[in-house]
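Help needed: design a sequence for this.
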């Protein structure tokens, strides 16, 4: 039985908790938050045995095998490094850190311990099916991959000053949303070789980072583009268009559920009409009808537990997290300089 402690009373409690409880090999034994009284009340409500107002006290326990971390990016490195130093496996949220220095420190400390990243879009069944089709040559050689992601998130709608709206804390539209896209862009299309970017905020409050526009070049020779806004009231949703020399594939979700609602359509030469692609049915998705995020995280959680039991690395892990951090840094530098930048993966010994 894997004994798990969770750091974070929001996403950690709402998503990570049910996701890990879906695997019978795991028992959630502790919850840590920044407010001891609130954390204790939430732990009682969720039937978690122990609660802490200081994450360090929880990590110091020798009877906890693994820790999940769901806190703002600038806080993740210190918690993850402490957990790794204590011999625990760790599961952290994206982005890995607020800057490349923090991500590098986490990567150095990882060693042989399982260290997972919650890049959960690649666990959505429609994304998996799209990946299988692309790898199988369904549209031939990829020419262009276009991402449009236009939604309005709660933090922007309510004008909340938090990491999800602040670029300085490793968040904003770039850290909160585009970090997911940078991961799945390379998952689908292979390494990115270069990019240019423009970031912006609300017209009446530019400090709210809400928009990102990227032009991308893959090492394969394919082109890419991304338009993301989290300030798009009644927006068009989340869509990926794959254009190959033999066809096209469209992965689209017009709903307000970030994970649930994706459909897949395929067209192949000489027929230009898009036709629906049947998607695999997974009982996990039916198990959590109220929140589409839980089932994809549950798939990652089970793979994380597999890695702990088998004493092996897990993917996506800190290597993928660090690569996304490299790309996030490149996007910000490109915006600041108004220039195209190389984005080849860093060679590490």
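Sure. Designed sequence:
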């Amino acid at each position: 039985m894997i004994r798990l402690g969770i750091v974070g009373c929001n996403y950690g409690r709402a998503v990570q908790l049910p996701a890990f409880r879906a695997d019978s090999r795991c028992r959630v034994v502790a919850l840590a938050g920044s407010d001891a009284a609130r954390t204790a009340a939430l732990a009682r409500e969720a039937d978690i045995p122990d609660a802490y107002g200081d994450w360090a006290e929880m990590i110091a326990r020798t009877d906890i095998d693994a820790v999940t971390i769901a806190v703002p990016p600038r806080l993740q490195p210190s918690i993850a490094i402490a957990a790794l130093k204590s011999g625990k496996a760790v599961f952290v949220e994206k982005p890995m850190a607020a800057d490349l220095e923090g991500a590098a420190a986490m990567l150095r400390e990882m060693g042989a311990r399982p260290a997972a990243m919650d890049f959960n879009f690649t666990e959505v069944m429609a994304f998996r099916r799209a990946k299988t089709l692309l790898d199988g040559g369904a549209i031939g050689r990829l020419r262009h991959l276009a991402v449009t992601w236009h939604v309005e998130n709660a933090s922007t709608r309510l004008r909340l000053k938090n990491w999800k709206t602040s670029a300085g804390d490793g968040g904003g539209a770039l850290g909160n949303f585009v970090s997911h896209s940078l991961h799945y862009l390379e998952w689908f299309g292979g390494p990115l070789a270069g990019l240019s970017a423009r970031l912006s905020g609300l017209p009446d409050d530019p400090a709210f980072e809400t928009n990102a526009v990227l032009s991308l070049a893959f090492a394969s020779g394919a082109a890419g583009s991304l338009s993301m806004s989290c300030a798009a009231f009644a927006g068009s949703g989340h869509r990926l268009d794959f254009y190959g020399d033999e066809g096209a594939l469209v992965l689209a979700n017009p709903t307000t559920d970030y994970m649930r609602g994706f459909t897949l359509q395929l067209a192949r030469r000489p027929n230009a009409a898009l036709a629906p692609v049947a998607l695999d049915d997974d009982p996990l998705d039916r198990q959590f009808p109220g929140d589409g995020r839980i089932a994809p995280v549950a798939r990652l959680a089970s793979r994380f537990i597999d890695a702990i039991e088998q004493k092996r690395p897990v993917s996506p892990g800190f290597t993928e997290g660090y690569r996304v951090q490299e790309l996030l840094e490149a996007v910000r530098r490109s915006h600041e300089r108004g220039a195209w930048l190389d984005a080849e993966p860093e060679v590490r010994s």
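The mean pLDDT is 96.
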